[in-house]
Write a structure and sequence with these properties.
Elements: H1 2-28, H2 34-56, H3 64-79, H4 90-107, H5 109-120, H6 127-161, E1 162-169, E2 172-180, E3 195-199, H7 200-206, E4 215-221, E5 224-238, E6 243-252, E7 263-265, H8 269-272
Parallel strand pairs: 2-7, 3-6
Antiparallel strand pairs: 1-2, 1-5, 3-7, 4-5, 5-6
């Protein structure tokens, strides 16, 4: 009895764990590692089977709350890689993933258990209850796919405007994400060159400040006006092989909220970057 039940229960848990791991990775933009995910889901599914058998045989078992937290931590810890950075700690990343995973559990396994309990109370067919359950299921699926649709749409829009490139200055190379923004139309009043925007962190890492004196370029915008600390960079190589040479980059404290973008192209650079730009401050 337990042999067949354990096999079936393990398969159900394994499939459900795969879905939950994929859901968290999808929302949080995690790296896709199928072998690692499969191992993590298999291990946690095995733990679930052992716990269930202990409950059925009325052995001393771990409290349900502690068991759930342990399984969530195991699933997250084995499935994803975590690295500390200046913006968010590893603990913050893990807690965020746990919240999203528990949300996924609540709208999947929680709904299944809820329906199972109420359907078990029915001694005869009840059209009204069946209709209500169908409406609830539809609403949950609609909400889930609505969230996923918006995430996919936002990612697709980013893919159209964000490019991967290698910034080179002297002997220093750095891989960065470059955003093409039609709103950046800043030009140098001295040579009439287009001016790009580069994050302060990238400028410091490239060591440009140690080799050049800054060029101060005036700007006027809705947010205010002033002078931008600007430097000249040697080369920017895009993934498609196009190159931008000897270009200007103004320093910005923070380009975007997430920190995914390190440089904003001038609106005129998308058309001329294949041929390179030159200038001479």
């Amino acid at each position: 009895m337990y042999s067949f039940y354990a096999d079936f229960y393990w398969i159900l848990n394994f499939v459900m764990n795969q879905f939950l791991v994929w859901l968290v990775a999808f929302i949080r933009r995690k790296e896709y590692t199928p072998f690692r995910w499969a191992v993590a889901c298999a291990v946690v599914a095995l733990i679930s089977v052992i716990h269930k058998i202990n409950v059925l045989e009325q052995r001393s078992v771990v409290p349900d709350g502690a068991y759930c937290v342990f399984c969530v931590l195991m699933l997250i810890g084995l499935s994803y890689k975590y690295k500390s950075n200046k913006k968010r700690s590893v603990l913050t990343e893990i807690l965020t993933d746990m919240v999203i995973l528990m949300f996924g559990v609540s709208i999947t396994a929680g709904c299944i258990l809820f329906m199972q309990e109420h359907m078990g109370d029915m001694k005869s067919a009840d059209v009204k209850k069946a209709f209500i359950f169908n409406i609830i299921s539809f609403a949950i699926l609609y909400a889930l796919f609505f969230v996923m649709r918006n995430i996919i749409k936002n990612e697709a829009e980013k893919c159209e405007t964000i490019m991967c490139a290698t910034l080179i200055h002297g002997s220093v190379k750095k891989n960065i994400n470059v955003l093409y923004d039609t709103g950046n139309n800043l030009f140098s009043p001295y040579t009439n060159e287009p001016v790009n925007i580069i994050s302060k962190e990238t400028v410091v890492q490239m060591g440009v400040r140690d080799k050049q004196k800054p060029i101060l370029i005036p700007y006027n915008s809705i947010g205010g006006s002033g002078l931008l600390e600007t430097y000249r960079f040697e080369k920017l190589i895009f993934m498609d092989g196009s190159i931008m040479m000897n270009f200007l980059g103004a320093v910005s404290e923070r380009i975007d909220k997430t920190g995914d973008v390190q440089m904003i192209l001038n609106c005129s650079n998308k058309k001329i970057k294949r041929h390179g730009t030159t200038g001479g401050h």
